[in-house]
Amino acid sequence: MSPLTHIDESGNARMVDVGDKPITSRSATARGRIRVGAEALAAVMQRTAKKGDVLAVAQLAGIQAAKRTSDLVPLCHPLPLSGVDVELTIDEPDSSIIATATVRADWRTGVEMEALTSVTAALLTVYDMLKAIDKGMQIERVELVEKRGGRSGEWRRG
């Protein structure tokens, strides 16, 4: 058996069979940021971006992305999510917007990919909505912050 769970003995990609695993409560939180210029940040804060309320639309994009992760990441299982919380906050001194997503499910596999996908889609949406103002924005440090549940238990970024 390959030590990589998504590779079979012949080296082919496979979706892991989780049918025999118990259903447990699981959650994961991810975070990332996008650095924006002063004019773009002002448009977000004053809600004057031409495409609309940047933070509200990005929040919805993050929620939708969590629900569609298995459509985007080929070896992810479709999961019955019980909750998705996406928060976007402005870090004015750093001229950035921070996206944080927490995803929950009672299922046989974790929700880390859903949380990471949620944050990424939220930040990409911020970029899309502000690109007319600032094409030099930078998406940075998309990372898992913590996960709970499942066989491996709890994990937190140090």
> What structural class is derived from the secondary structure elements?
alpha+beta
Helical residues, percent: 25-40%
Query: What is the H/E string?
Result: EHHHEEHEE
Strand content: 25-35%
The radius of gyration computed from the alpha-carbon positions, rounded to a whole number of angstroms, is 18 Å
Q: Separation of termini? A: 32 Å
Q: Helical region count?
A: 4
Averaged pLDDT, please?
A: 93
Low-confidence runs of at least 5 consecutive residues: none
- Count every beta strand, where a strand is a DSSP E run of 2 or more residues: 5
Shape: elongated
Strand order of the largest sheet: 2-3-1-4-5
Largest sheet: 5 strands, antiparallel
Describe the model.
This protein has helices spanning 38-46, 54-67, 69-72, 112-130; strands spanning 24-35, 81-91, 96-107, 138-148, 155-156. By secondary structure, the protein is α+β, with helices and mostly antiparallel strands. The chain has a five-stranded antiparallel beta sheet with strand order 2-3-1-4-5, with helices on one face. A hairpin with a 4-residue loop joins β2 and β3 (96-107). The longest helix has 19 residues, at 112-130. The two termini are 32 Å apart.
